[in-house]
Amino acid sequence: MEMNRALQRQILEALRDAYPEAVNEFRLPGRREKDFQAHLHYLWEHKLITIKSHGSGRRPQLRSPRITALGLDLLEGDGGIAAIIETTTVRYHATEIRALFIEKIAASDLSEQEKQTLRHAVQSMSADALRQAMVELSGQALDRTPGTFRQLANVCREDIRQHG
Length: 164
Description:
Layout: H1 5-18, H2 36-45, E1 49-54, E2 61-67, H3 69-76, H4 80-85, H5 94-107, H6 112-123, H7 127-144, H8 148-163
Antiparallel strand pairs: 1-2
Helix pairs in contact: 5-6
């Protein structure tokens, strides 16, 4: 079977339009295609649709397809509610990032002139620039700190121990 992504999308879109009801497979686009049943089976294997199987043997007929929440989310392209529920957002306010940078500048081995210049630059940075600097510096710190991933593994084990 050759994958026909356009046909698969058309099937999912037709099922979306009927949601939450099942659809008579004879009303779906591409039903006359040679591998139509195989495409239904493929979508079912990926849990994008539910189906009822009729007949037995090597190639049972797949009937009454219905799109699942996963199929709907795929069409929307945003990950759906699962993405919202399973996402943890970590937020640092610009004032917190700025304060951290200024604290580290003060503790650095830079000259007083360099510290003053850098403090002034940090105080005038936009929130987006501070965020970008935080991301870049965090990545560089992870690359340069020995034992970082061993420490991360310890934190992960402790989290699993506490939260299962």
